[in-house]
Amino acid sequence: MSEAFDAKQQQRTLEARVALAVEHAKAKGASACEVGASASQGLEVSVRLGEVDTMELSRDQGIGVTVYFGTRKGSASTSDDSETSVREAVERACAIAQFTGEDPAAGLADPDRLATEFPDLDLYHPWALSPDEAIALASRCERAGLEVAGIDNSEGASVSSHEGVSVYGNSLGFLQGQRGSRHGFSCVLIARDQVGMQRDYDYSSAREAGQLRDPEEVGRSAAQRALRRLGGRKLSTGRYPVLFVPELASGLVGHLLQGIAGGALYRQSSFLCDALGETLFPAWFSLFERPREMRGSASANFDSEGVATRENSFIDSGRLASYLLSSYSARRLGMNSTGNAGGARNLRISAPLESFEALLAKMSRGVVVTELMGQGVNTVTGDYSRGAAGFWVENGEIQYPVEGFTIAGDLRRMFASLVGIGDDVDRRGNVHSGSWLLEEMMVAG
């Protein structure tokens, strides 16, 4: 696949189109202009019960133009990278700007915050994967899972490979591109016993294909995860310690980030408004980002406004040390950009880590949550209520699977009640975290 996608040539083309858009905007009288452009290619194949279920070959591109006439702003986009289409997009953006209101916070990033250093972060590793090879890999993954005793059916296994390039430029003279790749396996299997059926999954994801787990390992792991859920029981309603497995603990970090995002803060629609400097977590817990980590899943030298990325400490020894700010949200709050237009990058936790077994012993009696359902999280009020499934723990040991219950709490109290973090760190995504043990939550059976 990689031969058909010449990333270097794509980057040169996009850079030329971005420069064209900026110059055309100036010619139309815009006081400032910024342009983001991207192109990507992907292959995704899914197999179910040994047969090809879906195959998708995708090729996407887009150019977004934003112009400023003083503090009036207009935006337009196109998926056609021809010079004519780019010029037309600029003209549409200019026309729109004439009808928008004045906004003192609108404008480009501050010039002294733009990135000036662009080290190679080793993010681009294309995979010359043919459709036939992808089918074979997905088949191996699913077959390994189906061979595990007790597995009754499959919802399929998939293999994906994506690569792309993005370019950002503005009328301050900034023009830079970044290339990246992402590949993965996944498998969803169904286990059955006399009582009923259960499903579960596993996956592997990496920037370089050589860093992926073996497809057979992913399939067998998905099978074991489904089997261990058989025989699920109901829970009695009560207040219990709750242990979130790593995949779900990272979601709690996500709720924190939503709460400290500049857009929510200046709109006064966050449970963490005016919380800067407050203690939210135990003193032994810190959370920070490493946006220039080599091969990091979200690494970048600059954010979506061209601002240089940097290591930001969001939680420092339990205290909220920084918000998550773009240039616009920073101006609305009377602060400075944190280089987070587009979000946080490569979230990492600093805390004493314990084994999963030690966390079970510490909880003694409670619930391990392995699956969450529903959207019952309100980041305006901090209210948290989700359907869940997992395992009941007694005397520090897992006893049996449980299902059909709800866990509820308040995000601030949940953060403050953190009593332990596991060393079972999940490194597949943007947030690297182990399991989180919370002192107590309401569990409704």
From TrEMBL:
Keyword Aminoacyl-tRNA synthetase: no
Species for this entry: Halotalea alkalilenta
Superkingdom of the source species: Bacteria
SUPFAM superfamilies attached to this UniProt entry: Putative modulator of DNA gyrase, PmbA/TldD
Name this polypeptide is given: Metalloprotease PmbA
Domain Metalloprotease TldD/E C-terminal: start-end pairs: 237-445
Keyword RNA-binding: no
Family, as annotated: Belongs to the peptidase U62 family.
Annotated PANTHER family: METALLOPROTEASE PMBA
Gene Ontology CC: cytosol
